[in-house]
Amino acid sequence: xxxxxxxxxxxxxxxxxxxxxxxxxxxxxxxxxxxxxxxxxxxxxxxxxxxxxxxxxxxxxxxxxxxxxxxxxxxxxxxxxxxxxxxxxxxxxxxxxxxxxxxxxxxxxxxxxxxxxxxxxxxxxxxxxxxxxxxxxxxxxxxxxxxxxxxxxxxxxxxxxxxxxxxxxxxxxxxxxxxxxxxxxxxxxxxxxxxxxxxxxxxxxxxxxxxxxxxxxxxxxxxxxxxxxxxxxxxxxxxxxxxxxxxxxxxxxxxxxxxxxxxxxxxxxxxxxxxxxxxxxxxxxxxxxxxxxxxxxxxxxxxxxxxxxxxxxxxxxxxxxxxxxxx
Amino acid sequence: xxxxxxxxxxxxxxxxxxxxxxxxxxxxxxxxxxxxxxxxxxxxxxxxxxxxxxxxxxxxxxxxxxxxxxxxxxxxxxxxxxxxxxxxxxxxxxxxxxxxxxxxxxxxxxxxxxxxxxxxxxxxxxxxxxxxxxxxxxxxxxxxxxxxxxxxxxxxxxxxxxxxxxxxxxxxxxxxxxxxxxxxxxxxxxxxxxxxxxxxxxxxxxxxxxxxxxxxxxxxxxxxxxxxxxxxxxxxxxxxxxxxxxxxxxxxxxxxxxxxxxxxxxxxxxxxxxxxxxxxxxxxxxxxxxxxxxxxxxxxxxxx
Lengths: 327, 304
Hints:
The structure holds 2 protein chains of 2 kinds.
Chain A: E1 4-13, E2 21-31, E3 36-40, H1 47-54, E4 62-67, E5 70-71, H2 76-80, E6 83-86, H3 98-108, H4 113-126, H5 142-153, E7 160-164, H6 172-186, E8 191-196, H7 199-205, E9 208-213, E10 216-221, H8 223-230, E11 233-239, H9 245-255, E12 261-262, E13 268-273, H10 276-289, E14 294-300, H11 304-312, H12 323-326
Parallel strand pairs in A: 3-8, 3-9, 6-7, 7-8
Antiparallel strand pairs in A: 1-2, 1-4, 4-5, 9-10, 11-13, 11-14, 12-13
Helix pairs in contact in A: 3-4, 8-11, 9-10
Chain B: H1 2-23, H2 41-62, H3 64-85, H4 96-112, H5 115-126, H6 128-133, H7 139-167, H8 176-204, H9 207-223, H10 236-244, H11 246-258, H12 271-274, H13 276-300
Helix pairs in contact in B: 2-7, 3-4, 3-7, 4-7, 4-8, 4-9, 4-11, 5-7, 5-8, 5-9, 7-8, 8-11, 8-13, 11-13
């Protein structure tokens, strides 16, 4: 049995004056002990709802969930003693200092005042918050709040860690730093379930990926397996000017093995091909004949973006902002 | 920012090792999960209740606006009513300032209880309730801590108001025991009302809405009462409302306990006006019996 196991989870919401939303629609999930699994999907796919069920915050309409054989739905208190959770928004008390926030969490885990204080001091050091330890959180930057929140999730060294979009809203540099922190944490053997809408985040951190859309898992595997499932090589061409997009697409359709898709920014187009080198030189040659100025052209292996696009029919970061309200 | 963050990531692994030496723990080790001290459920409840109460007391201390509002508002009310209305309203006996004080006390502590509503809504919005709900702690304790916070604010307001009242000529004409019973009754009523507001805060989920709504409800409730004027001359519908108003019963009880009932005051015919103490105690019991379980259940199913 998997360490975290969810079977056929269903959760519906009925927003006022709107049709029923099936936030979870028969979701299955298996997470092996000591691995990092990423739930990948756009906003509203059901990622946060899944984490809320597994962290005992909401009850599903039907389905089962266990963590280390403990029934999440029937025995939430035992589950709470073995998980740490860090949410999308840093859940810290603005008026308490960094140290006080962590000490409070320790006391609420019933570690006793002495251990709670000692552990808070350790986490302050680990997360390099020494300078901020004795100032109220109110004045902290977003990245620092996120670190305190993450530290709060680690107070008991939980065997299972849930991270719901840990880097959403962070600048790229803070995101990289947080990735490093998460990586050094999981090297200790913690089982991590992570949600993200960033493909590169799943690619970098996760041992296994479950792609979620409309409340169901639509594909799962390692990043490499998922990429291989999309198959084949691709040719990517970046234009100097967006104006040439239409003729370029015609050329790419002619020499490609499928329809070209926009690969970001309006100037880059990607098309699956059967024979990379032949197709590449044909496309570049045809573009030169029509005087289309190219900024860049090359072959590449499929990325998780391609996987996502193929599976869901839409790009990963196109968000329909429903989940926050429904949940 | 960048140097600080890079230092962080580099030092995590090393610091985790250092931490391990002290607690026998590593940053993410499964074998070394810290174990709770498993006391009885009751001792855990009191521990959680104290921690969340502490959190709300720290908020009072660290947010100067709350403290300022808590101190200034009652002083302002005492002075405004005494000198603006006091000149116009004839009260036999010790005069208007003695009549007024129980009314001001009641109004202030009832308003003070609305903090629980906006604070629960705000905590929900900030996600800190979600954090609490993933911890192996008592949910009821979060609510106890919150309502205790209101109790602290109200106790503080009472002290300030009494000092101000004393300066403008208010005197207690009863025994110390009766005086403390009066103070306790005011705080008890307000405490029970905090549970009503906590529930509404969780149900409405918006601090702004709960703030505006409580003004709409509480202004009529405190002004259409015997708090500031004798009610016998009010138009009949208002007089009847006032006689059945539990705030009137609270004010009447406090007046009696402080020995501030003007001589020859007319008491209404309604049962509630005839039995102010019983009315207050029944009101407190109903609020607690209904809203404590309702709030605890609401908390257990909350999620942002």
